[in-house]
Amino acid sequence: MNTKPIITAGLIVLSSFILVFAQEIQLVNSEENAMIVLQPADRITISYIDVGPQGNPIERSNVFTIRPDGTIFHELLGSVSIANMTIMEAEELLTQKFSQFFTQPKVALSVLEKTSIKVILYGEVSRIGVFPVKPNTTIAEFIIEKGGTTPDADITRIAISRNDGSKIIFNMERYLYSNEPINNVVLKDKDKIIVPRLKVQEKYGKLSKNYILQYGNVLEISINEMALMETNPARSESYIVDSEGNIFHRLFGSVHLGGITVDKAQGVLTEMAKQYYREPVVSIDVIELSSRNVFVFGEVLRPGIYPIEGNVRLAEFLANIGGMTDAADLREIVVTRKQGKPVVFDMNDFLFKRNDRKNIFLEDGDRIIVQKRQRGMFVRLSEKLQPFSTMTSLLSSIVMIYLYTTTK
User: Fold this and answer.
1) What is the total count of domains within the chain?
2) What pTM does this model have?
């Protein structure tokens, strides 16, 4: 039997099949997917053309899991190392190895399941640790998925330190509030993500510049020379605002800061520091508000001694403790102070005329007296006559009932 025509026909069919298979390979492996780097534990499929006993082409496909040493074991090729290669590079290697068995081998490699890469997350974040990350995860979505950052985080300077020694700075604030994909990079294996803390002057510029300093506040003050802030920052020092609103600074002596905002206080100290520094940068941190007490007497629903913290005004304080009785005189609420004249507050003017001038900030030791409303002579007389008129009305009713029953 002449088998030559059969072999020739088989080769023609094989060539056609190879051509179709090659086109399918081009569709399956786009340029982007072909650049994926293979790692241990990836599950992959390797497809190639084989010739059956009758000379007809057969497509063979095998599933492999890349072993920890970066190799796979193929039934035809034996052990092949493909870890850390792109899909394109691995296909070229496999094609060379299959050429020992086929004249024009065609190979297609695809990833069924990509192993997770691992990155380190550290700094001002909700969760610190080493986390597995899915391929093609960006830095922004990763931080958000892990719970976000703390209030002290500087999200404008998030650092990504890579295994090759390179470093990328990501401005998440700009990314979130604009449409610009600013360095929202795709994470790689062994990336180290560091979310830094806000610098002192930035932190208190944002969070507490409008806080009004007062008696009992504990302040942490640092004064730096601008040129040395990064390389040799000065240590902060603690000071207490005394009952007169002063601190005693080691350089400037007595400085009055009570009653002004943190922002203004930084300005005051900056001006004073110019006699010692070329370009001073002053930072003030309120590390303790201190608890203060006020006394409440008179026509209030809950008289007593109350601690206060921070900046509390008189009207808001009275509302928070439950308000006043129906007999309270809203026009003349008196606050007496340790040092100074009594302050008279008209709640009616505050509520209806929006006069805030006397709605003072409370101080330690303030005594708040809510007086009873004064009534005129006719009101007082009617109150005195009310029991007598009630008794008279009762007696009249009894007499009327008696007369009605006796006449029948």
Assistant:
1) 5
2) 0.33
Phi first, then psi: what are they for 335, rounded to 5°? -120, 120
Each residue of 177-214: pLDDT tens digit? 776 667 888 888 889 999 998 764 454 444 456 678 88
As given in the structure block, the two tokens for residue 214 are 């007062």
Write down which residue in 238, 270, 288 finishes a domain: 288
Largest CA distance in the chain: 149
Tokens of 58: 């057969």
Using an 8 Å Cβ cutoff, are 10 and 51 in contact?
yes
| 240 and 297 belong to one structural domain | no
Same domain, 95 and 25: yes
**pLDDT per residue as tens digits for the range 235-269:** 888 888 887 889 999 899 999 998 888 889 999 99
- The position carrying tokens 């009305």 is 393
Q: Which two tokens stand for residue 319?
A: 């509302």
Q: How far is CA 268 from CA 249, 257, 343, in A?
A: 13, 8, 29
Query: What are 84's two structure tokens?
Result: 């850390």
Among 162, 195, 228, residue at a domain's last position: 195
315-362 pLDDT per residue, tens = 988 988 888 888 899 898 999 987 778 889 999 888 888 888 888 888
Helix (H, G, I), strand (E, B) or coil at 314: helix
**Two structure tokens written together for 312:** 């509390």
The answer to whether residues 255 and 272 touch, using CB atoms and an 8 Å cutoff, is yes
Length of the chain: 408
Phi, psi (deg, nearest 5) at residue 390: -65, -40
Q: Which structural domain range is residue 134 located in?
A: 117-195
User: CA dist 336 to 305, 317, 329, Å?
Assistant: 14, 15, 17
Tell whether 298 and 368 lie within a shared domain: yes
Q: Which residue has the tokens 């700009």?
A: 174
Amino acid identity for residue 54 in this structure:
Q
Judge whether 268 and 255 are in contact, CB under 8 Å: yes
